[in-house]
Known about the structure:
- There is one protein chain.
- The protein is of the alpha/beta class.
- It is built from eight helices and eleven strands.
- The chain is elongated and about 60 Å long.
Amino acid sequence: MKSSKKSVAILGLGKYGCSLAENLYNLGEDVLVADIDERVIRDMAPKVTSAVCADLTNEDEIVALGLQNMDIVIICMGGNVAASIMSVTIAKEQGVPKVIAKASSPRMKNILKRVGADKIIDPELEGGIRSARILASQHIHDYFEIDDNLCMVEFLPKKAWVGHNLIELDLRKKYDLNVAAIKVKDHDWGYVDPNRNLEETDLLMILLEKKDINKWR
């Protein structure tokens, strides 16, 4: 059985990059980090799988990181347009399936998308913990903390749920979660019809306790 563990490279270790790397590693992912700051690399080394001191403005040093072995590459150098462009370009040339980049302005966002970034992250709207939850899961599309113990996730149905309705599945009893709303393909969010069979393209809004979140990776 193939492991669900992902290999993730994070290039640039500012506050957001460090938080994202540490949380992804704590969620069980293989995490490589790279930055030019030796002090930051020393601090992060015990918190991730591998930490490399590299000049991310140097093409050869980016190539030497071996990004072709990664499932996801996340470029967190929002203040350095040139280095971000180079990193995105090299990652895509090396065949990385998903390249995500941090942008500090709408103009930078447009540039990074043009050179191949699959997704742009906005650190003003996202935190490292929230991003890590989403990236580490095969089912979770979005994640929001409600309070110290409760969270809300946007969640694709498990394969075993497809073709069954919520009455049959009895998710509250079996999994201790509550389905608050549903988004059917090409429609807005709406209330759940408990008699409607779920489809694989449905998106569910689920309330559950944060201690149970790792069950849904």
